[in-house]
Amino acid sequence: MASDYDVIIIGAGAAGLMCAATAGYRGRRVLVLDHANKPGKKILMSGGGRCNFTNLNSTPANFLSENPHFCISALKRYTPQHFLELVERHGIEHEEKAAGQLFCRDSAKDILNLLLTECEWAGAEIRMKTQARNIVATSDGYQLDTGSGTLSCESLVVACGGLSIPTMGATGFGYDIAKQFGLEVLPTRAGLVPFTLHPELKQQLAPLSGISCPVDVSCHNEHFREPMLVTHRGLSGPAMLQISSFWEPGDSLAVNLLPACQIREDLLSLRKAKPQSTVGQYLAQHLPKRFAQAFNDLNGWTGPLQGYKNTDIDQVASTLGQWSIKPAGTEGYRTAEVTLGGVDTRQLSSKTMAVLDQPNLYFIGEVVDVTGHLGGHNFQWAWASGVAAGNSA
Ligand SMILES: Cc1cc2nc3c(=O)[nH]c(=O)nc-3n(C[C@H](O)[C@H](O)[C@H](O)COP(=O)(O)OP(=O)(O)OC[C@H]3O[C@@H](n4cnc5c(N)ncnc54)[C@H](O)[C@@H]3O)c2cc1C
């Protein structure tokens, strides 16, 4: 008996919609279903509402995975330039913020509209408020039990995303399907997520709340030079979000508050040239004034530099250059931008995203164990993996 659809895609997010348009243009009868009331909710909230839709400098080195070579093929075949061409074809105004990071000038809605328009042109159907429940493999494909009846298809694409932001519709359903079909699911944890602090440190840092400054943060030999933001809950900003993907409970972070300075040498020279100057004045030259003041007070650095012995200066330099912070934890999936871990890529084709021994079952996007750095890399993975599967499913 003929299937209802050639391809059914579970999840109307970035990866699912991209896959739907690609498969639709190949003449496949495509249905995308999603249990949420609207498609692409994460696209709408991304990039502070302006969607950092790709990164021109994206390379496989910007992705974390137990199998780091897996992402290379798809990323090579669908590049940031390809997505940028699509954005420009739709006349979407965009701008480069930090190096390579492309954002919509107006609104993330533009990217969602692009995807919905492409799906419409490609003849792909999108059905919202439809939850994929039970799935059964049949002799010629798959049968899905949805809240409103049973559907059949030749190819099934799982684009359910990860666990981050449950209020936006995130579920572990993609992992359940993977396990049902015998795939390994690697342990998951929240990534690109703010840190929480122990009460004592949180109280000490309270005067710094709301201030951002460029730092170099490191953990497990990974480091990022980006802004850090102290919040009333803990530590955030790009530097902290980036390093959170490498942090594990119990680890300390090393923060260099003055990455552009030779702190010890600067202070020794200053003591010689201007013995009456203070650490606070030195800090104020390099850090936002309120941060400099509060950090100086926090450490009790008083008096002119001429009163500082070399060992005191070493101590100041070490506190500023290697400020050791032990986070209490992270804010978890509630606010995480991504989920690390997921479907083990060693069981998938890197060319098509199909399961190696079940060629009509595909996994794409965030549900897979490929996680990008902050800065547009996660959407680039959604587009690239979506196109890879859409060209095969
Ligand atoms: C606040 C925030 C900001 C971000 N900003 C950026 C950014 O600027 N740049 C960037 O590159 N990345 C950003 N990201 C990450 C990016 O949004 C994700 O990597 C990307 O959306 C993953 O796409 P996906 O299609 O795999 O999954 P999702 O977008 O999560 O889509 C999965 C879909 O599956 C649906 N679903 C789940 N279970 C079921 C089920 N059982 N039945 C039916 N449907 C189901 C969900 O409702 C959802 O619509 C951000 C993430 C967040 C949370």
Write the layout of secondary structure elements.
Elements lengths: L4 E6 L3 H12 L4 E4 L7 H5 L6 E4 L7 E2 L7 H6 L2 H10 L4 E3 L4 E4 L4 H13 L3 E3 L4 E7 L2 E6 L2 E10 L14 H8 L4 E7 L3 E2 L2 H7 L6 E8 L2 E9 L3 E3 H8 L8 E4 L6 H11 L5 H8 L2 H11 L10 H12 L1 E3 L3 E2 L7 E6 L10 E2 L2 E6 L7 E2 L4 H14 L3
Parallel strand pairs: 1-2, 1-10, 2-7, 10-21
Antiparallel strand pairs: 3-6, 4-22, 5-6, 8-9, 9-10, 11-19, 12-15, 12-18, 13-14, 13-16, 14-15, 16-17, 20-21
Helix pairs in contact: 1-5, 1-13, 9-12, 10-11
Flavin-adenine dinucleotide binds next to helix 1, helix 2 and helix 13.
Q: What would a concise description of this structure say?
A:
By secondary structure, the protein is α+β, with helices and mostly antiparallel strands. Helix content is 32%, strand content 26%.
In words, what does this structure look like?
The longest helix is centred in the last third of the chain and has 14 residues, at 377-390. Helix 1 runs parallel beside helix 5 and helix 1 runs parallel beside helix 13. The protein is α+β, with helices and mostly antiparallel strands and 393 residues long. It is elongated and about 90 Å long. 32% of the residues lie in helices and 26% in strands. Flavin-adenine dinucleotide (FAD) binds next to helix 1, helix 2 and helix 13.
